[in-house]
Design a protein that fits this description.
Helix Hairpins, Heat Shock Protein 90, alpha+beta, disordered C terminus
Amino acid sequence: MKGIHIGRWFRNVSIAKKLYFTVGIMALLIAFELGALIFSINTLSSVRAYVNGEGLWSKAQKDAMYQLLKYGRSRDEADYLEFKEFMKVPMGDHKALVELSKQKPDLQAAREGLIAGRNHPDDVEGMIKLFRRFHSEDHIHRAILAWNAADSLIPEFFVIGNKLHQEINATNPSPERINAILEEIDPLNDKITPFEDRFSATLGEGSRWLEKYILKILFIIALTVELTGLGLAIVVSRSIQKGLNEILHSAQAVTLGNLSSRAKAFSNDEIGILANDFNKMAAELERMTDVIQEANITLERKVQQRTSELERKNKELEQFAYVASHDLQEPLRTTTGFVEALRKQYKGMLDEHADRYLDYIAQSSDRMKILIKDLLDYSRIGREKQFVPVNCNVMLAEVLSDLDTVIGESQAAIKVGELPVVNAFPTELKLLFQNLISNSIKFRRRGVAPLISIDVQSRNGYWKFSVQDNGIGIDPSHHDRIFIIFQRLHNRSDYEGSGIGLAHCKKIVELHGGEIWVESTPGKGSTFFFTIAEHPVHTEEEKTNAARQVMNL
């Protein structure tokens, strides 16, 4: 009867209490299992530490033997000191072995000995406990016997070392005597090696036995934990499965996009409360989704309007620049013609101030011609409708031919790599290279002939071109500013120009769906990079996707 009452009580209590009871039982069993596991891990770790310690012991012994042989050949006192230093390892372990073999060992002395044997300080306590707890266990006992046997031979190394040291430091050292002493080392080493191997093999055998034994215990404990947990889980799950399944089905429906799905609440317990809260969350999610969708529609509409407005203004600005530049040419030609006529007819007849003023007017007119030409070029960029295949090497040869005079005057050396055939607007691409090369020549260091290198690499569907020079360089703070129209970093008295050239370059590259940037160190030169798609880009959507890819190059 009591069993029936307990079962009824367990079914009727709240889910929280059921979980507390289940977790409590599981926690006790797991704590017991963890205790056994920690003990097992510590024991195996200590066995590992002894195996590692044997490796340190063996290595130090072999190194000491090597240093002793080396000392016999070199007769260098440093080698003998190295021999003694290496022998500190087996001597430290000897100290620990002697102490731990006592009925009442000095544990502090044992710790010091193991640390002197180069064992890790964190392993020392476990090694001491393993020795004291399991010294009678067959595997550990046989390992200790092998340790004792090897340890008993260590003093003989000191005997050989002392004899060798005395002979070498004698007034008339005998080579024959030294060789005879050295010949004693190998036989002694051959005696020790089997004990070292036996120690490691015995501990390895013991470790494998212990692992199997521990696995059996852990398996039994784990099986008990699993069966107990499974039984309790079955009992608890039957009381809450119906409500959870309902919530799960509704959650899956919401995940698939049916935000109107709601879970039925079959009770007023925690599962019922959870179902009601889920329904509230789904309702709020549905409301917020509607709000976000409305906001997205509004935002997309505004973006489209703004984009259309910007495109319209850009077209108007380009048209204005074209018309203004075109209309300025005629009065400028008239002004230039009159100035030239005045200079020819009245040169030398007026005072020197008048001649200088006429020169100023002529120079200003020339600068205005260049500016108007640049503005017209800027407004014409992109008027070609179709990409065509362009052989960059042939096109670049034309550019260098056009710049032949300035190249010769500056004594510039231009190195051109093997360039590809690209799909591009030929006029714009030619202007792009012409501007970059002209800038490299213009902004050269005084007294240094320009050295320009033009190359290309293929990266992720794009041609990545580079134009490198050894000029004056550009301060990093101006790397973005130089691509803005009419931006100049120098006075006209230092370097001529309108400040439009790099803006031309930026517009041309963007027209091809690429990016342009500069890497430069002041006083050492600059490298301009730009990208052009290996395949033509036509639509606005394609250009947008292409620009995103370029940003990852």
